[in-house]
Write a structure and sequence with these properties.
This protein has helices spanning 4-21, 29-44, 90-95, 139-150, 168-177, 188-194, 211-224, 237-245, 257-260; strands at residues 50-55, 71-72, 79-88, 101-108, 119-125, 158-162, 180-184, 204-210, 227-233, 267-272, 283-284, 288-297, 302-311. The protein is of the alpha+beta class. Strand 12 (288-297) and strand 13 form a beta hairpin.
C-alpha cells in the first residue's frame, strides 16, 4: 500500500480525536462517541481508496455510520479493508481518564480477520518474547517462560489486565506467581501496544476483551514485531453461529498474529484523546489544538510519532 495512505489515515484519527476530546470529562459517553464517529466518517470522504469497513461500529441496523460492510473513501483508489474504533475508551473520555485513543488499521483486501462482536481471550507480548508463548498454557508456565525470554525475575514482570470481575481468578493466579499487575479500566488496544514499547513497564497483556479490539491490537503489534494470540469466547450459541456465518470455519481455534493480520500491507494509525501509556491527549490552545499520534507500517517496520498543531478559524463563543 502507498506509504502516503498512512499519513491520510492519521489525519482521520486526528479529526476523531479533536472532536471527541471536546467531550472529555463531561460525563456523556454517547456524545463523545458520536462526535468521534461523525468526524472520522467525514474525513474518510477525502481519501482516494476503495475501502470496506470490516471492524467497525456494528451491523448496519445498529450503527448509522462506520458499520461493518460500509464503503468508505472516494472509490478511486486501491481496495482496502479497514478496522477501526473511533473512540477506544468512551467511558475513559467521559470521565476524563487515562488512555483514550482513536484507532484505525488498514490492509489489502482480505488481510484483516472479520471478527464477530464477541469476547476474545488475548495474549500480547513484545518482540523479545515473540514465538515463545502459547495462550493455551497455564498462566504460571506462561509467565515463567516470559521471564526467561526477557531475562528478568518473575517479580520484575508486569502483567496488564482489564479490571473486570471476570478476571478475579486470573488476577489471583498472577499474584501468586509473584508478578506485578497493572490494572486498566478500559483501552486494551493501548495495553497490548504497551508491551512493544521499550520505555513501557508492561511486559504482557492477558485476559478477555472485545474480539474486534483484538484485531486492531494484532495489526499494530504486527507493525512492531511483537506477538499476539487470541481465542474467541462466545457468550451464547447465537454468537458462535454468527461467527461461522461470517466465514470462520473453526471459531474455537487459537488465532495467531498472522491469522488476524495477514501479510505486510498493514498500516496502523492512532491519536491520543486523553493522556495515556504512549500517546498524549489533545491539548487545546488559544489558536487551536495540539495532537499526538503514531503511525506504523508492517512492511518497513517504521514507527513515526507525530505532534501536530491545528489552527482553528473561529473564536470561542463567550
Amino acid at each position: 500500500m502507498d506509504r502516503n495512505l498512512a499519513l491520510e489515515l492519521m489525519r482521520v484519527t486526528e479529526a476523531a480525536a479533536l472532536s471527541a476530546a471536546r467531550w472529555m470529562g463531561k460525563g456523556d459517553e454517547r456524545m463523545a462517541d458520536a462526535a468521534a464517529v461523525e468526524a472520522m466518517r467525514r474525513s474518510f470522504d477525502k481519501i482516494d481508496i476503495d475501502g470496506t469497513i470490516v471492524i467497525g461500529e456494528g451491523e448496519r441496523d445498529e450503527a448509522p455510520m462506520l458499520y461493518i460492510g460500509e464503503k468508505v473513501g472516494t472509490g478511486r483508489g486501491p481496495k482496502v479493508d479497514i478496522a477501526l474504533d473511533p473512540l477506544e475508551g468512551t467511558t475513559i473520555t467521559a470521565k476524563g481518564g487515562y488512555n483514550a485513543t482513536t484507532v484505525i488499521a488498514a490492509a489489502d483486501e482480505g488481510c484483516l480477520l472479520r471478527a464477530p462482536d464477541t469476547y476474545m481471550m488475548k495474549l500480547a507480548v513484545g518482540p523479545e518474547a515473540a514465538g515463545v508463548l502459547d495462550i493455551t498454557d497455564p498462566v504460571p508456565l506462561t509467565l515463567k517462560r516470559l521471564a526467561r525470554a526477557l531475562d528478568k525475575y518473575l517479580e520484575e514482570i508486569t502483567v496488564c489486565i482489564l479490571d473486570r470481575p471476570r478476571h478475579e481468578e486470573l488476577i489471583r493466579t498472577v499474584r501468586e506467581t509473584g508478578c506485578r499487575i497493572k490494572l486498566i479500566s478500559d483501552g486494551d488496544v493501548s495495553g497490548a501496544l504497551a508491551t512493544c514499547m521499550p520505555e513501557s513497564p508492561v511486559d504482557i497483556l492477558l485476559g478477555i476483551g472485545g474480539a474486534p479490539e483484538g484485531v486492531l491490537s494484532a495489526a499494530a503489534i504486527k507493525c512492531l514485531g511483537g506477538d499476539f494470540q487470541g481465542q474467541l469466547r462466545f457468550r451464547n450459541e447465537e454468537e458462535r453461529q454468527r461467527a461461522i456465518a461470517m466465514g470462520l470455519k473453526d471459531p474455537d481455534k487459537v488465532f495467531t498474529l498472522e491469522d488476524l493480520a495477514q501479510g505486510d500491507s498493514i498500516i496502523f494509525a492512532s491519536t491520543g484523546v486523553t493522556d495515556g501509556e504512549f500517546l498524549r491527549g489533545v491539548r487545546f490552545t488559544a489558536r487551536g489544538a495540539v495532537t499526538n499520534s503514531v503511525i506504523m507500517r508492517a512492511r518497513s517496520r517504521t514507527v513515526r510519532w507525530v505532534t501536530a498543531q491545528h489552527h482553528f478559524d473561529y473564536k470561542p463563543k463567550y
